[in-house]
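Researcher: I'm preparing a figure for a lab meeting and need a structural model of a single chain. I don't have an experimental structure, so a prediction will have to do for now. The sequence is pasted below. Please return the structure as tokens so I can convert it later.
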Amino acid sequence: MHHEQNEPGTLAALLHSARFGASIDPLSRDETERMAASQAVLDKTLMDGRPVYGVTRGFGPLVAFEASDSAEQQGAGLISHLGTGQGEPLGPETSRLVFRLRLQSMRRGYSAISPECWDVLARLWNSGFTPVIPRDGTVSASGDLQPLAHAALALAGRGEAWVREGDAWSVRPSAEVLRELGLAPVDWNARQALAFVNGTSVGLAVTMVNHAEVLHLTRALASLTARAVVLLGANPEAYHAGLGHARGQVGQLTAARWIRSELAGAEHGPDRPLQEPYSLRCAPQVLGAVLDQLWALEDILVREATGTTDNPVCYEGELLHGGNFHAMPVGLASDQLGLCLQQVAYLADRQLALLCTPATNGERAPMLTPNPGVFSGLAGVQLSATSFVSRIRQLVYPASLTTLPTNGGNQDHVPMALNGANAVGDALDLAWLVAGSLAAGLNQLASLTERGSEPGGLWATLADRIPPLDEDRPMAPDVRAARAIVREHAQDTVRADGGDDGLR
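Model: Understood. Here is the structure written out token by token.
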């Protein structure tokens, strides 16, 4: 299934909306009627004296006990006892995406939320109100309870909120921010609070952001691979479209097309082997396999982003108690993203190794230094890149394999989706440094060869920012600069090629 870039609910559209502040549309007549109908189902269930989780009964293993007679006390107690999140907060753009995803889930009419309640929350989002959400402390099983509780506390004027001042964001007490916006704090009742915190939206938001970054990283490695082929004089046959057509994998065809698009002037050098090591020759197969996974994962994440993930759910006149809040779809998708980005980072590390070794760099000096022994060239850059890849492998160990039962045995199978997504985000930071290390190495190789000289473009920008290593110097700033240049180029290229989900 393919999703057009501007279709509501696609990853690209949702990420764009969160980052650039597009307003949430008001409820349509059909949506208002569905929401009112689901609320009527809840009201009838209560009038019939049947138990309703979180409304007439307690939460989690305390469902065996009666809830408070006050719906407001029950709602306040829910978000209060879950206010145990810790750690660094999610970035403000990710927090806005979280908030938007909760609104998207509730507007579908399955959550027994009144249109009036939804309108209040949508007005807060449209005003720019952005809750501060700590990233650690949820098992993602009954939804991302703790992070979403902190968001709910902020909306109630009992937490913190992000405030944008020019290009910078700062954190202030949410009660102050609400007053300045002229908006009243949300007074959560039990059902509203439960519908808000019982959702997978936090792990989903972080995974969506990570998904876009892995795509950009993959695109960057295609450019870096092409540059290596040009500078080394490697055999360009490995990127011929015929190989992809013979195999039939769409990702491979796309990755090879990306590489070919940047092979201007590439010629098979007389001193190069017929077949290069796999890190060059099989780059379309590796990057293509990652792309195939990204497209498969996108469909799963889009469905989650446009679905309803709380409990209980109203469906065709029935109030159904179940487990839509269990974030296993997000958790497994995030785990797979981690495995994919490790492959891309490892490919970059192996290509950097080719540049540092005389047997594969065209019999140039080890570490591409013009004066070996006196100077050490790329030695430090390669050592750090190796460390980054090792750390990436630690971070992307599948979080779904670290499950532990909790909550008095009630939550005896948990996905740890946000834990995994946070780790993948950390691994992405390091993967970009590996890409920056390779870019710095290619820049050094370019200074030693006549191949691939260009009057402008990505490689000219790198050459302008990063001087040749005629003598040793600390390369950490150069690697960071190369990372930023390559990342921006990849983002621009993806955007020009049709957006995050228009590349096939």
